[in-house]
Amino acid sequence: MNFAKIALAGGTALTLSMTMAVADGNEAYLTQDGAGNAALVQQGAGPGGNRVGTALNPILQDGDNNSVRETQATGAGFSRGNNVIDAATQLGNNNSFSSNYSNDAGDNLIDDVRQEGDLNVISIGRNDSVDGTVGTVLQKGDRNYLTVTQQSGTGNTVALIQMIGDRNGAGTVNANNVGTRIIQSGNNNMISESTVIGSNNNPSAGNGPWDVNVHSIRQFGNDNGLISSTAVTRGSNDNAIAVLQTGNGNNFDLKQGIDVTSTLNRMTLTQTGDGNALDGVQYGSRNTITANKTGDFNMAQVEQYGDDNTATLTILGDFNGRNIGFTGNAVLLGLASGDIMQNGAFNMAALDIVGDSNAFAYDQDGDGNAITGSITGDMNQVAVAQTGNSNVASFSQTGTGNNAAISQ
Which of 85, 185, 239, 386 could form a cystine bridge with 220, CB 3.0-4.6 A? Predict the structure, then answer.
């Protein structure tokens, strides 16, 4: 095993090269104090098994304008690298951390990356990655940016992404002003949890609806997030979540807000494929949930607590709804199935379904609520319950064998 421990002062550029033609199982520890430091770690072609830092001896940069960059050395034969970054910590402002692999690199692990300060950037990229893992990634401060990309691979995992602070994603660093941006393409990938906590995380520009949210997640492929995937934003003033899933068997749980101070939140989910699931919760005022599903066997549960909320759900496909329950006048408003619940004033819920054998429910408790929905197909059911003043329900069903119950 080759071993190196380096402690360097300010304004230093350092390259650590781990070339597997010499040996595998290398370790490197790095400490840099001061400003303007740069470190480059290269993992060479070969069987891998290299480690950068440990829990007791991490990569540590303490100061401003520092950078750590990990990449593979040039050359072929880099598959199944099994390289590990145990811990990387940057303390200060205007720091950057990047780690990028390609060419079927496999079994690589980033266990822990932490940045504390403002105007910091984290960029993690994997191309054709197999069974790669991104463990805990934390940014704590303001005006930070974070990107994790796992492209064209299988079995990749993102365990925990956390961005804590204000005004994140307000510049042009990572693909159109996104605070936290995660992209996975391939099959059997998973995002366990991604969280943005803070206020005024409201990017001002971008090239499309997926690029103007402080919290943007995209998954392309099949069987992603099958265990459970959670995306959270907490804080006030336009903290937005956008999730796009294309493929089969996808799943996401979206949560926004803690109390009524969490205002102006937006939540967007688009799922294309079969067997998809959604849980959405919003606490606060003037929140919006928009969910578009295309495919079969989709489930939904949307809950909003507060004022001026709007929920819109559009489904194109068959057998949608959580339990596919109900019988006879929607079982007299016992509710359940796909659930859409709102508790507060000035709420609106809209539902459009095209397909057969769907079952859905609404529940509104408060004043000034409105429900507008339509179902086109056969053997569909709906239950609508409203409690309070000035509620309006407008619902239409087109097809045969449908049943609906409305209680006000």
Answer: 185
CB atoms closer than 10 angstroms to residue 332:
12
Question: CA angle at residue 237 from 231 to 243, to 5 degrees?
Answer: 25
pLDDT by residue (tens digit) across 25-68?
Answer: 677 788 888 899 888 887 666 666 778 877 677 789 999 999 99
**What residues are paired with 219 via a beta bridge?**
184, 245
Q: Which residue range is the domain that position 15 belongs to?
A: 3-407
Alpha helices (H) in 196-350, listed in sequence order: 328-333
Count of structural domains, the chain: 1
User: How many angstroms separate the CA atoms of 17 and 41, rounded?
Assistant: 6
Q: What span, in angstroms and rounded, lies between the C-alpha atoms of 400 and 166?
A: 52
Q: How far apart are CA 332 and CA 8, in angstroms?
A: 73
Q: Burial-class residue 360 by CB neighbours within 10 Å (0-12, 13-18, 19+).
A: buried
pLDDT digit string (tens) for 156-202?
889 999 989 887 765 544 445 567 888 888 888 888 888 888 776 65
More confident residue, 214 or 197: 197
pTM of the predicted model over 0.85: no
Query: Residue 18's closest CA among 34, 8, 3?
Result: 3
Residue 90 near residue 97 (C-beta atoms within 8 A): yes
- Is residue 180 a contact partner of residue 215, using CB atoms and an 8 Å limit? yes
Encoded tokens for 376: 């086109």
